[in-house]
Every structure is written in structure tokens, then in C-alpha cells.
Design a protein that fits this description.
CATH topology of the largest domain: pyruvate-formate lyase- activating enzyme
Radius of gyration: 23 Å
Largest sheet: 6 strands, parallel
Strand order of the largest sheet: 2-1-3-4-5-6
CATH class of the largest domain: Alpha Beta
Bound molecules: S-adenosyl-L-homocysteine, iron/sulfur cluster, FE3-S4 cluster
Number of domains: 3
CATH superfamily of the largest domain: tm_1862 like domain
Helix content: 25-40%
């Protein structure tokens, strides 16, 4: 009889991709995925440790699952991902109802570890070694099996993430990732292309290449046969017949080269949307963060990007209240936001992380000041995002359909959702007589409403949209 698996994923897109792969590996051992944790025989929590809050969420979820396990003693609970890697056995000491702790590079061991638990050979299992090897079976085998897109994916079936590297060597002073994900390692070029080709053959139209620092792809091993860099990879992936949109995340400003910038002008499939985390606008803070660039260097790169690709939509990350951040330093960050006018940003209050150097800095900023600065920054970003989005009012925007809903009540207007090349979420309504376009199709939407986080409009006659169109 098949067993039921439920996975709860926290954190970044790399974790989302890893969760998909875990689900696919376990499907091979007979597990069927369910969205309902109460039905599950195995619950995996794929965890994130980027900020203290993310870590606390994991413990509070584990606390809740204790009741579920008391009711159903055959239930197995596994903790994977960055908190698992960081905390190891401490998780089981604190939460003895956890059966399994699996580190960030050991999740391919899940089927074998579960078999040993089932067979009574192990009572609880912990597997944490950082393998430092991207030829681990998790990726190769799953791809060779050509398993279908997992039902639990948060993405539309026409989109997929592809992990191209793992780990990070940058050691930004606030960051836990180099400790939880290990040293940077690039996945072999041919493996990545194989995976992309298989996904596109299965109907995927949009691929996002993933890594903590994708533009240093190729600097650390595994890339064979010859030395290839990230722009080479982008060019090769863009050639995949049937691939309509290509994106990548995340890039480090210090490694952003002119060759990579030119890809935005040269590759039709590469969307004019770029996530380039700046973190702060103050040179003093950037230096203490160990980011390796100044605000001026960042602004120069932005100017060059916009010269090469004027319609590029820039997104970023900010940390507010880094230790020692003065009111003037924060004003520099606000000033940088004013100057660049990012389309969108993620912003966070600085949080101490285990092993990260800044945790030992003594000049911490109070919670109150951090909250107040975050609100100011987010207020300004919302105004700017709204202004950007409003510039689409009355215009035709090309959208890739991601989801559509059949009306529940008769007479309700059918509606769908997709994304512009600039990564804006676009909701669209059908006009009488129009048929709902399938996910993956490129459509034209006439925008009549703009909010800070999304656009709304009506579907223009699909005859206006050549189905062969492949504009990024
Ligand atoms: N590799 C990417 C992003 C890593 S984590 C990069 O280099 O930019 C995603 C974001 O979380 C970071 O960009 C940063 O803004 C935020 N972050 C990381 N560590 C943090 C910490 N200790 N406190 C608050 N925010 C943090
Ligand atoms: Fe963390 Fe810096 Fe690496 Fe990004 S580049 S993962 S912020 S250490
Ligand atoms: Fe979080 Fe680990 Fe990703 S700390 S952001 S899940 S690499």
C-alpha cells in the first residue's frame, strides 16, 4: 500500500527545488504526495535559517506536530534543510518526536534512511555531512527518471527551477548560508542542460536558474569539460527549443560582468528582470557586511545595465539595522533606493545568526529603530513600485498564463493569472466569447488597474498574439 507524504517548505527557491526533488525521490519508494499533513505517514519540514524568525517558525511547527504524532504513532517526522544542517542532533534533543534530521546535501539519502527506520535498524536517523559534490545522486537520478512535475510544486506546471550550483564562498558577515550550505560548487554544464531539455520536453516554458551566487558559476569545479562561465551557460540554456522565458537568481553585484550584462540585450528568452541584492546604500555598512563593492560601484553597474537594456526591471534585497548603522547610513540606503527606483525589493531587519561574524559586533541597533527604519524603507518602496506599475496603465502587456480559474457561480467572469516579463503578477478577465488561454501561453493583456504588487486588465483578442511569439 502506498504511503502518504507531506512536505512543508520554508525559505528560498533553492529549498523549494530541493523539496520537489525529495518528493520525486520518495515517489519512487511508493510515497504519494498530499497537501494535508493530518493524512500523512511522513511529514518533512524543509527549513530555512536565514533569520532567527525563520528558525523559530520551524520549532513552533514541530511543537504543533507533536499532537499529531501522539494521535498517530506510525507518523514519521523529518527535518531537512538549513536548520537541520545547523542544529543537527540538537533538534532531536529539543523535539524527541522527530525521527529524522537530514542536512542540506544529504537529502538524496532519504529513501535509504527511511527504509532503515522502517526495518527497525535505526530508531532515529541523523545525516549531516556536507558532501561538497554536485554529482550526488539526488539530481542525476531524478532527472534520468524523467519523473513528472510534482503536484506540490508552488510553481505553475509551465515553470520550473533548475539548481545550477550550491553553497556560497562569500561569507557576508551577517549570513548563515556558507555554514548551512557549505562551499560553493557548480553543477556540471551537461547535467544542467539535460535537466532543462527534459523539463521543456515535459511542457515547461519558463526556467529559473538557481544558486546563491549564480554569476560565479564555474569558478569552483564540476563544470567540465572546459572552463565555462555563467554567460556561457545562459547562452546554452537559451538555445533550448521550446523554452520561452529564462530567468536566474541570485546574483552578487561584485561578480556582475559586462559579458553577463550583454546577455540581457542578446538573448531573446532572457526576461528583462534582474534581482541584484544591494543590502545597503552606505559604504561603511557595505564594508562591514563584507560585500566587496561600494554604493558608487553598484550605481555604475545599474546605469550600465539600463544602458544595455533600458526596460530592465530591477529588484533587490535590503537589510536595515545592521550593527553600527547610523541614521546617516540609513539615509544613504533611502537615497540609493530613490536613485535606482527598484521595481520591487525584499527588506529585512538585521538578525543575528549562529557563526556569522556580525553576531559578535557590539554596536547592535535596537529592535525599535530597526522596525521604524524598515517601515520607512517599505513605505518608499511601495510608492515606487506603485508608480512603476501605474506606468503600465492603458498599455498592452505580454503575459505568460500561469493559472486560470473556472467560475464557481454561473455568470461570474472567468479570470486568470500570469506574469509579465518584468515579473509583475497580472490578473486578467476574459471578455464575452473569449476562451481561457492555457497555462504557458503568451497573451496580451490591456492593463486597467495597478496596485503596488500586481496589475489587472482584460485579455485582448488572442488573434493579436502570434502563438509562436517568444518575446522575453
Ligand atoms: N545569496 C543572496 C541572498 C541570500 S539570502 C545574496 O547574496 O544576495 C536572501 C536575503 O536575506 C539576503 O539578500 C539578505 O538581504 C537577507 N539576509 C541574509 N542574512 C540576513 C540576516 N542575518 N538578517 C537579515 N537579513 C538577512
Ligand atoms: Fe549569504 Fe552573502 Fe553568500 Fe548571499 S553572497 S548567500 S548573502 S554569504
Ligand atoms: Fe534559507 Fe538556507 Fe535558503 S538559510 S534562504 S533555506 S539557503
Amino acid at each position: 500500500m502506498s504511503k502518504i507524504l507531506h512536505i512543508k517548505t520554508f525559505g528560498c527557491q533553492m529549498n523549494e527545488r530541493d523539496s520537489e526533488i525529495m518528493g520525486q525521490l520518495l515517489a519512487r519508494s511508493g510515497y504519494v504526495y498530499s497537501d494535508a499533513p493530518e493524512d500523512a505517514d511522513l511529514i518533512l519540514i524543509n527549513t530555512c535559517s536565514i533569520r532567527d524568525k525563520a528558525e523559530q517558525k520551524v520549532y513552533s511547527l514541530l511543537g504543533q506536530l507533536r499532537d499529531l504524532k501522539e494521535k498517530k504513532n506510525t507518523l514519521r517526522i523529518g527535518v531537512c534543510g538549513c536548520v537541520a544542517q545547523q542544529e543537527g542532533v540538537k533538534i532531536i534533543e529539543r523535539m524527541p518526536h522527530v525521527d529524522l534530521v537530514v542536512g542540506t546535501q544529504q537529502f538524496y539519502q532519504l529513501p535509504a534512511l527511511l527504509a532503515r527506520l522502517e526495518g527497525g535498524e535505526l530508531h532515529q536517523a541523523i545525516e549531516l555531512d556536507l558532501a561538497g559534490d554536485f554529482t550526488i545522486p539526488s539530481y542525476r537520478e531524478v532527472m534520468q527518471d524523467n519523473l513528472p512535475h510534482l503536484a506540490k510544486s508552488t510553481l505553475a506546471p509551465v515553470q520550473s527551477f533548475v539548481t545550477i550550483m550550491q553553497g556560497c564562498n562569500n561569507f557576508c558577515s551577517y549570513c548563515v548560508v556558507p555554514y548551512t550550505r557549505g562551499r560553493e560548487i557548480s553543477r556540471p554544464f551537461a547535467d544542467i542542460l539535460d535537466e532543462v531539455h527534459q523539463l521543456v520536453a515535459q511542457g515547461v516554458r519558463e526556467i529559473t536558474l538557481l544558486g546563491q551566487n549564480v554569476n560565479s558559476y564555474g569558478k569552483s569545479n564540476a563544470v567540465a569539460p572546459q572552463s565555462l562561465a555563467f554567460p556561457d551557460l545562459l547562452r546554452a540554456v537559451a538555445k533550448t527549443p521550446g523554452l520561452v522565458r529564462l530567468r536566474f537568481t541570485t546574483s552578487h553585484p561584485k561578480d556582475l560582468t559586462p559579458t553577463l550584462m550583454r546577455c540581457f540585450a542578446e538573448l531573446e528568452q532572457l526576461c528583462p528582470h534582474f534581482h541584484l541584492p544591494v543590502q545597503s546604500g552606505s559604504n561603511k555598512v557595505l564594508a562591514r557586511m563584507h560585500r566587496g563593492y561600494s554604493a558608487e560601484e553598484y550605481l555604475d553597474k545599474v546605469a550600465e545595465l539600463r544602458r544595455i537594456r533600458p526596460d530592465i526591471a530591477l529588484a533587490t534585497d535590503f537589510i536595515v539595522g545592521f550593527p553600527g548603522e547610523s541614521e546617516q547610513d540609513f539615509a544613504d540606503t533611502m537615497q540609493l533606493l530613490h536613485r535606482v527606483r527598484f521595481h520591487s525589493s525584499f527588506s529585512f531587519k538585521y538578525s543575528d545568526r549562529p557563526q556569522a561574524r556580525a553576531t559578535n559586533f557590539t554596536d547592535k541597533v535596537s529592535e525599535e529603530i530597526k522596525s521604524e527604519r524598515l517601515a520607512r524603507l517599505q513605505g518608499l518602496q511601495n510608492e515606487i513600485s506603485l508608480e512603476w506599475n501605474k506606468s503600465s496603465l492603458g498599455k498592452k502587456v505580454e503575459v505568460m498564463v500561469e493559472h486560470n480559474t473556472t467560475p464557481k457561480t454561473p455568470g461570474e467572469t472567468p479570470r486568470g493569472r500570469g506574469r509579465s516579463a518584468a515579473n509583475q503578477v497580472v490578473h486578467f478577465l476574459l471578455q464575452p466569447g473569449q476562451t481561457m488561454p492555457a497555462p504557458g501561453k503568451l497573451i496580451q493583456v490591456l492593463i486597467n488597474h495597478a496596485g503596488p504588487h500586481s496589475l489587472r486588465g482584460t485579455l485582448l483578442d488572442s488573434c493579436n498574439t502570434p502563438s509562436s511569439s517568444i518575446h522575453g
